[in-house]
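Dear colleague,

Thank you for sharing your sequence with our group. We've completed the structure prediction you requested, and as agreed, I am returning the results in plain text so they can be pasted directly into your records. Please verify that the sequence below matches your submission; if there's any discrepancy, let me know and we will rerun it promptly.
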Amino acid sequence: MATTMVVAGVAVLLVGCVSGSAQRPESSNAENAAEFNMQLGIAYLRQGNLPLAQEKLTRALEQNPRDPNVHTALGLLNDRLDRPREADEHYRAALRLAPRDPDVLNNYAVYLCKRGRYDEGVKRFEEVANNRLYRAPEAAYTNAGVCNQSAQRFDEAERLYRRALTVRPNYAEAVLQLGNLMLQLGRNDEAKAEVDRYLANFTATPELLFLGVRASRVTGDIRAEERFARRLKVDFPDSAPARALATLPRNPG
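Please find the predicted structure tokens below.
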């Protein structure tokens, strides 16, 4: 079963959000206005209202062209508009203005991987993971793994997922990506074992229980499949994975 994708052919890439972490001097009126318009633009972008997002973000850029977060937001917008040249220009402008900001680096890395520039994207994610200011290196390692998986570099993807779990053993997203990779490679028993190992020590998520259902079905472990499915329906009845149980193929590929 395919999962939601940002990078084609691979499960979820953990998209970074525009943040206010870049260092700024004492705010002027123009900077305050730019911040206000940027937040409006981001809100419109999330709603899918791209014309209004462009209007507000363009105004924010005019008011404060040296704000890296404005450039990052414009990078996100231009990517949504399928304008890769303009998107890349804004991401690079953000990096010039805040070269050590891990959130700026993370957003650019997501963009690079989405556009198939895997080597560049992995390099940026590893910079993020090694940045001591970044609070979630496990997410950066997982993203780098997803990027490698999209490039069909499966051994490297597995290494990075396991690196993420070394940093934070209870990071469910890394287990999910690792399990999906193993299913993709036909290592079905290993996928199920990863889910079992996680659930024996940490709190379940609906996505991991659904992965357990899929892995158990492929391996023919009917009891385990029923156990995972029952827990998913009882603990997370309104979740998307619980709803997906009804449409899960009997023999998933």
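Summary note from our side: The radius of gyration is 20 Å.

Kind regards,
the structure core
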